[in-house]
Design a protein that fits this description.
The protein has 25 helices and 9 strands. The protein is of the alpha/beta class and 585 residues long.
Length: 585
């Protein structure tokens, strides 16, 4: 386990990673953080400050002043002439921070200046470090210490990976997850088990006192640390899919744990959940960046599934991932009060939508779904395109999807099977499949597409689609799934479509679009349980969409119903929004 942590620490960047981990470690050691690292703000050499007992000196209370650096402590990073080097930072602490920045109540405390890095102290700088610390140490008032990768590893294992919080069984789950980081044949079930043990099998307290809050903080910090370790290992293995699945499962199960224990109003717990969600964004964003170059090349995803069966399956998986990522940025944009952050998140949502639109155009299987459950991924893609303002791209995709599905069914090949069975796809490829009427005896995809004609206000195109469905799919039962009052108990842990809810059938395709809009609106008004989902009432609406993608629960119609009024006023040919950032990089 030490080797796992040590390797993880060596990968951490100074900004946003190592400086984010340190306050959690200090908290577990009984040291209260007084400040955290900030970008663009002068800190006079101190990245993190804290007050608490020095466990190496008879638990004497001291003022800890940390300066954080990435990687190894080498001669170059010691003093390369820049203000970011270690020696100038230490000089600033001695000359500026200690004389003028310490709070009055802490001035009498002994000061301990600590250089913190994830790497090693190199031999070529050891004498410089020893000479500097010997010169400036004042017995009983000022001392120096180095927390390098080895020491941080010991501290992390002792205070964050202790037996109470992180039992041996959980450590085994983490090691097994890492060992399988280069494989995609199966889901990362060992990490799933780690999540369950960390949150649901530990009897974590739900009380509102400080002791209970601290235990919950440590548990969520450990989960976030474990997820980051898996993420970095998957990067090393050049295979980010397991990390993405782990990240999705972590935020969904954490939300469910908070829901079950009524912790939404606990600020410290909610803050830790937000940090975990940002890790999900980091993992998914890195996955998108890796795929970006392939999205802008014709048949760019073919290399990820080089046959006629795998290519469309991989394509729709990526569509669902990008759709969820786009709406995650959209969710953050909707709930943040910071105008700069809102603009940044909006730009990232539009960058995701642009990447999604390009992927669809460059990968023909994006128009030929092979499973009925690809309705989930298509819905995610359409929601993101619409929310980002890419109305024309959404409409073009919708019409081409409709045409290809009808055409494929008529020729008896490459249509979306109800069973979602890989064996059925192979049998169809070999010409050994059952009759097409059996393979597509029911469909959630067709009524979902019909509803999107109403969302995008495509009256003339809808007439053609409605007529084609009436003639071609007269033996297919059209269905839509709606949540019920019990759905919130299942949405974040399993396929809620199997666990409950309400399947409405047969869904009627009205002859004209206005009648269809009225029909859909009445259905949504009748089935209002969506509004009572915890992710909706707490304004984390994207969690429902991520749960749809991860557990393959049918996408709830209310997610796209809201766009009918918005898109009614859109005019075909409207200028597309500028890609403010295109900054998935």
């Amino acid at each position: 386990m030490k080797l796992v942590i040590r390797e993880y620490l060596s990968m951490l960047k100074e900004s946003g990673e190592l400086d984010a981990l340190l306050p959690d470690l200090l908290l577990s050691m009984g040291i209260t953080p007084l400040s955290k690292a900030q970008i663009g703000v002068r800190q006079d050499g101190v990245d993190v400050a804290g007050v608490g007992p020095d466990l190496e000196d008879n638990n004497i209370d001291k003022l800890f002043l940390f300066t954080i650096k990435q990687g190894d402590f080498s001669r170059k990073i010691w003093d390369d002439g820049s203000l970011q080097a270690i020696r100038p930072s230490l000089n600033e602490i001695l000359d500026v921070y200690i004389p003028g920045q310490i709070n009055e109540e802490h001035k009498a405390l002994p000061k301990k200046v600590v250089v913190c890095c994830g790497g090693d102290l190199k031999q070529d700088v050891k004498q410089n470090w020893n000479g500097y610390t010997s010169k400036h140490t004042k017995l009983g008032d000022l001392e120096f210490d180095l927390w390098d990768g080895n020491k941080l590893t010991v501290l992390l294992e002792r205070f964050l990976l202790d037996e109470y919080l992180f039992p041996q069984s959980i450590q085994k789950h983490l090691r097994k997850t890492i060992a399988l980081a280069d494989q995609n044949e199966d889901e990362p079930r060992y990490f799933y088990a780690l999540i369950e043990e960390t949150l649901f099998k530990r009897d974590l307290p739900s009380e509102k006192n400080k002791s209970a809050e601290r235990k919950r903080q440590k548990a969520l910090c450990l989960l976030n640390l474990s997820l980051n370790i898996v993420f970095h290992w998957c990067q090393e293995a050049d295979n980010l899919r397991p990390a993405l699945l782990c990240a999705e499962r972590a935020i969904l199960r954490t939300w469910d744990w908070m829901r079950q224990n009524e912790l939404f109003d606990c600020k410290t717990t909610s803050k830790k959940f937000t940090q975990l969600f940002l890790t999900y964004l980091k993992v998914t964003g890195t996955y998108a960046i890796k795929l970006k170059q392939h999205c802008f090349v014709r048949d760019g995803l073919f290399g990820y599934g080089a046959d006629e069966v795998e290519y469309p399956l991989r394509t729709f998986e990526v569509i669902g991932i990008l759709g969820a990522l786009g709406m995650a940025f959209g969710n953050l944009s909707a709930i943040t009060c910071d105008e700069q952050l809102r603009k940044r998140y909006t730009g990232q949502m539009q960058a995701s939508a642009q990447m999604l639109a390009t992927l669809i155009n460059n990968n023909p299987p994006a128009f030929t779904p092979r499973y009925d459950s690809h309705a989930i991924d298509i819905a995610l893609g359409l929601i993101t395109l619409t929310a980002a303002g890419y109305i024309n791209e959404a409409a073009d995709w919708l019409k081409e999807l409709s045409y290809r599905i009808v055409f494929s069914y008529r020729i008896g090949k490459y249509f979306p099977v109800t069973s979602d069975s890989y064996d059925d796809l192979v049998a169809m490829e070999l010409g050994q499949a059952p009759p097409k009427e059996e393979l597509m005896h029911a469909s959630t995809l067709l009524p979902m597409l019909a509803a999107w004609y109403a969302v995008l206000n495509l009256a003339d195109d809808y007439k053609a689609f409605q007529e084609a469905v009436r003639k071609t799919f007269n033996k297919t039962s059209l269905q839509l799934w709606f949540p019920d009052e019990d759905t919130d108990n299942h949405l974040y842990s399993t396929n809620a479509g199997y666990a409950g809810g309400f399947t409405f059938e047969p869904f009627q395709l009205s002859k004209n679009l206005d009648d269809l809009k009225t029909y859909i609106t009445r259905l949504c008004e009748k089935h209002q349980a969506f509004n009572n989902l915890s992710c909706i009432t707490r304004r984390w609406f994207v969690l429902g969409l991520i749960a749809n993608r991860h557990f393959r629960t049918p996408t709830i119609p209310a997610y796209w119903q809201q766009y009918i009024c918005i898109c009614d006023s859109k005019v075909r040919g409207e200028e597309q929004p500028e890609d403010e950032s295109n900054n998935l990089d």
